[in-house]
Amino acid sequence: MKKEKNGKRAQETRLSMLRTPAVGLDLGEEFSVATMYSSLGEISERFNFSMDDEGYTLFSSRIPKEARIGYEASMMAYSVNRRLRTMGYQNITVAHPKELALIVRSKKKNDRADSEKIARLLFMDMLPESHLLTREEQILRDLLIQRVKLGVEITRTKNSITSYLKREDVYPTLPKTDSNFSGVRREAIRAVRFGDDRDLVLKIMMEKLTFYEERCTPLEERIMALVMDNDDVRLLMTIPGVDYYLASLLSSYVRDVNRFPTIDHLASFFGIIPESGDSANVKRRGRMSKDGPSIARWTLGIMTDTVMHWNPHLHHYYAHQKERTRSGKRAHILTMKKLLRMIYHVLKTREHWRWENEALTNKKLEDLEKGGGGGVA
After folding, report:
1. Are 177 and 108 contacting, i.e. CB atoms less than 8 angstroms apart?
2. pTM of the full predicted structure?
3. Given this model, what pLDDT does residue 211 score?
4. Where exactly are the structural domains of the chain?
5. Which helix (H) or strand (E) holds 250?
6. What's the whole-number mean pLDDT along residues 28-37?
7. pLDDT at 278 exceeding the cut of 50
8. What is the pLDDT of residue 107?
9. Which fold has domain 16-123?
10. In this structure, are residues 187 and 209 in contact, taking their beta carbons and an 8 Å threshold?
11. Which pLDDT band holds residue 65 (cuts at 50, 70, 90)?
C-alpha cells in the first residue's frame, strides 16, 4: 500500500513537471541562445541574450521563474548556475555532455538547434543529468588539484636533477640513503662544485625544487582544516596506506556514495570498466573506457599501489590476476576495481576497513587534527 502511494506521488510529481515550461540553453562566452517549450509542447520563446547584466535582465523578463532550465555542462555551467539561482530560478538541470551527445547526435548542429534539442529533452524528462559541485566542494577540489599539480612538478624536477647528476657522473658519489632526496643527500647535492656554469644550472634546479615544496605547505594545511570533520575521509583513513590527502582526493570525486546505485555505476564513473560491444549472443569487451575524471582514476591507481603494499590479501589478488591474464596492466586495473568495491562497501555500510590497524588510524587522525588546527581560518 505504501509503495503504491509513493508510486502515485512520484507519477503526480512527474506530470506536474511535464506541465511546466522547459527551457534549453546553448551557452556561449558572449552570447547564449534560449528556447522555451510551453506546457503544450510548443516553442513559445526563442531568443539570444548576452552574458551580462543586460542579457540576464532580458532572460528574466521572458522566462517565468517556475520554468525548468537545462543546459550542457561546460566551462560556463557553474557561473550560469550561480547567476540563475540568484535570480530565483531553482529548477535547473545540467546535462551530461557525453550522454547528451549520444542522444542528440545529428548532422544539423548550430546554437539554435542545440538549445531546441535540450529544451525538447528536458520537456520530455529525458535530459541526462550531470552533478555540479557545491561552492564548498568546488573550492576543496581546486585545492586538491593544485596539490596534485605541485606533486607532479616536484616529481618532474627531482627526476631532472637525478638525470643531470647521472649525466655528469656525480650521482654514484652521493651518500647512500633510503630516500633519493633525504636531507643528507640534498646537502651533498648542494655542495657539488663543477667550477663552471653547471654550478648555476644545478643551483637553479635545487631552488626550483625547494620553491615547489614550500608551496605545498599552505595547501596541505588548508586541506586538512577543511576535511578534518569529514566522516567519509575519516572512514577511508582506516585503510592502512591511505592518508588524509588520498582520502580527501578520492572522497571529493565520490562525494555522496548513495548517488551510485551499485558498484558497477561507481566503477563506470571512474572509467575502469571495459568498453563493450555486445550483439545477440556475442559479447565483446575492449579496453578500459577511461570515461571518468582522469585525476580520480590516477588517485585510485596510487591508492591501489599503496594499499597493496600494506595488505597481503589485495597483493595476492593482484598476483593471481597477473598470472591469470598474463598482463600486469590488466591485473592492476582489476585490482583497482576490487579496491573500489571494498571502498564502496566501507562508505555504504559506514564500517571501518576490515584489516584496519587501529593504532595507525589513531596516529593518522591525530596528525590530521594537529595539522588542521593550523590552517587558515
Report:
1. no
2. 0.80
3. 97
4. 16-123, 135-227, 231-372
5. helix 244-254
6. 94
7. no
8. 55
9. Nucleotidyltransferase; domain 5 (3.30.420)
10. no
11. very high
